[in-house]
Amino acid sequence: MRIVIQRVAQAAVKVEEKVVGSIGKGLLVLLGIEHEDDLSDAEWLLNKLIHLRIFNDENEVMNRALLDVEGELLVISQFTLMASTKKGNRPSYVRAATHDIAIPLYEQFIELATQKLGKKVAKGIFGADMKVSLVNDGPVTVIIDSKNRE
Q1: 99-117 vs 39-51: helix axis angle to the nearest 10?
Q2: Does residue 91 lie within any of the structural domains?
Q3: Which of 16, 79, 111, 150 is the most buried (most CB within 10 A)?
Q4: Rounded CA separation 82/86 (Å)
Q5: Would residue 107 be called left, alpha or beta, if left means φ above 0 and alpha means ψ between -120 and 50 degrees?
Q6: Distances (CA, A) of 124 to 5, 69, 90
Q7: This model's pTM is above 0.90
Q8: Backbone torsions φ then ψ of 119, nearest 5 degrees
Q9: Which of 80, 85, 98, 141 is flagged as catalytic?
Q10: Is 31 strand, coil or helix?
Q11: Is 80 one of the annotated active-site residues of the chain?
Q12: What is the CATH number of the domain that holds 66?
């Protein structure tokens, strides 16, 4: 499981010109799921995500986490994060999980995040053609992969 985290001042996702999820200050997370992922990957990544100190404190030092600033969370499914570009110029998505694996893990990730944050988590629509807009704050962008826990 791989996530791209973007610290945002605001973010929104539209499907067919309708806003289906939006947040103010917080984190926009693009979530890619591969066929070998399970609930332990989701739990580990979520724990890392909500405790990642990428928000500024009173001294303008990145020393606060999403929980500390009571920030919001928008999670977007994105199978293309699992792309392999080893051979040729056309990305291969063979590592991306099929719907029967990815949808339940995506929903579990959202549910766990809702429980840990104690508030609603905004989300896109799995598999839909989505238009994501954001105001990247910083910019601050971090990538974390549950199979490469460094």
Answers
A1: 40
A2: no
A3: 79
A4: 12
A5: alpha
A6: 15, 23, 26
A7: yes
A8: -155, 165
A9: 80
A10: strand
A11: yes
A12: 3.50.80.10
